[in-house]
Amino acid sequence: MNALESLVIASFARGLSVRDVEAALAKALGDQAAISRSTVSAIRGQIEDEYQTRARRRRDGVKLDYLFLDASFFRMHPGSPAEPVLAAWGITTDGKPAFIGLAPGTGESFGAWKDFLADLRDRGLASPLLIVSDGASGLIGAIEQVYPKALRQRCVIHYVHRCRNLLAKIPAGMQAEVKDAYWKIFDTEDLKTPPGPKLVEIIDARIGDLAAKYQGIYPAAAKVLLTDRVGLAACLRFPAEHHHRIRHSGFVERTFGETRRRVRVIGRRPGETSCLTLVWAVLDRASRGWRGLTMTADGLRLLQDLRRPLLKATPPPAATHGHHRRACRRSQTASTVA
User: Fold this and answer.
1) In this structure, are residues 88 and 143 in contact, taking their beta carbons and an 8 Å threshold?
2) For the stretch 17-54, what's the b/e string if a residue is b when 16 or more beta carbons lie within 10 angstroms of its beta carbon?
3) Which helix (H) or strand (E) covers residue 153, if one does?
4) What CATH fold (topology level) applies to the domain 64-155+248-287?
């Protein structure tokens, strides 16, 4: 039924009615193999029921090391601009991929992301160790408010954007030199330092050194380098065998690309619920084939060492938010992890 279900989902995504889907399947499969209109309706109803149930389910049983956040735009209403759908997926503590959920967003704003993440938290999703996202300020602010204990890694695509912003502040004759120096910051192949806070310190020092080198003559470029530098190397605290997967959220974007391909004429099916149901169905089915991460003995020990100081109990309510964040940082430094 999976292949048939996929055909029905793709057909609905193209804006076809139940009658149209029945006719399309008859043409594709032949009259003898085609399915009835009632069966098509039943599959559609099953998909919608699944979405409504899964969208409200508790997430207490999902324990994540890594949470990936991304958004993509879909046309939900005829004649209206495309609107964002916010999505979350992750890697569990045993290395398995998990599609966490999605929701409509009123733009990629702080409020939209905060509501989305707060809903996941309120349904029992505990803080992950690391959250991977792009550099949108609203998203960053929402992460820091809803999951303040999690480390945050900026998607590797942001490194490219930052490089472009950096070079825009540099005269043309110097751009090749600065570009080369920028990418050397993140080259760890020549280092013997294992993953952990020491490796992060090395990368952070390289960022500081490069910024200091150009501070006097290109202060705007130095400012670009130093902005939110914490989010550029957080992944280096984690097992080396995970680095290639946790430096970016591109996997979500690639899956969204497939979703957009299937629902590219979604405007012919008006309505937020219809759109979200279809996007959810594609992502949910795709997630069954996602690859997880290898969990080695050394990697598991490193993750456990990270988990203890990052996700320990929250301090008494009397402590202010700023005091809590500073205390967290001191704890992380003192314990030489995270």
Assistant:
1) no
2) ebeebbebbeeeeeeeebbeeebbeebbeebbeebeee
3) strand 151-154
4) Nucleotidyltransferase; domain 5 (3.30.420)
Query: Is residue 21 within a helix (H) or strand (E), and if so which, with residue range?
Result: helix 18-29
Which tokens is 310 given? 């990052």
CA 5, CA 39: separation in Å to the nearest integer?
A: 10
Transcribe 211-230 into DSSP letters. Answer: HHHHHTT-HHHHHHHHTTGG
The 10 Å Cβ neighbour count of residue 248 is 22
- By the 8 A CB rule, do 232 and 67 touch? no
Q: Is 238 exposed, middle or buried (0-12, 13-18, 19+ CB in 10 A)?
A: buried
pLDDT in tens, 214-261: 999 999 999 999 987 888 889 999 999 998 888 877 665 666 665 555
Q: What is the pTM of this model?
A: 0.77
Measured CA angle at 308 (ends 128, 319), to 5 deg = 85
CB 200 within 8 A of CB 233: yes
DSSP states of 69-85 as a string?
Answer: EEEEEE--STTSPPEEE
Q: Give the H or E element holding residue 42.
A: helix 37-54
